[in-house]
Design a protein that fits this description.
Low-confidence stretches: none
Number of helices: 0
Radius of gyration: 16 Å
Largest sheet: 13 strands, antiparallel
Length: 137
């Protein structure tokens, strides 16, 4: 499935199974692999086992084996459950769900995760563990 906006591709999604409901706004998908595009180039890639989406409200729920890669920041995010609000550009996980972030040789795990797509920032509201690797020469 490919979605275009103003004659430009902005989403490409492959799914194992897709259900769309009569209202035309709600869909559920299984075994999802997706790519988001900005100015013709891939800006983000990801995958999840289950996806629930309401295209009218721009609310998306991702579940199980979630992996997201944001190319611009060279950042990987993984977890079991995420909520994406397309209008506010906020990605959040459940308060007790563990999320892993990998960026610039750093691997951080924590809960209470929230990220802003607009400001390219993220926070954890609970205990965080991780490793930082440096290249000392």
């Amino acid at each position: 499935m490919t979605r275009y906006e103003n004659k430009k591709k902005n989403l490409e999604m492959n799914v194992g199974q897709l259900e769309q409901f009569k209202d035309g706004n709600s869909m559920y998908a299984k075994d999802v692999v997706f790519s988001l595009f900005e100015d013709g180039d891939v800006s983000m890639e990801g995958s999840c086992t289950y996806l629930g989406a309401n295209t009218k409200t721009e609310i998306y729920e991702l579940y199980d084996s979630i992996k997201i890669y944001r190319k611009k920041d060279d950042m990987k995010i993984s977890g079991r459950s995420f909520h994406w609000n397309g209008k506010s550009e906020q990605l959040t996980a459940g308060r007790n769900d563990t999320v892993t972030v990998e960026k610039d040789g750093m691997v951080v795990r924590g809960s209470g995760f929230s990220a802003s797509g607009a400001s390219s920032s993220y926070i954890f509201n609970s205990i965080v563990t991780g490793n930082i690797e440096t290249n000392d020469e």
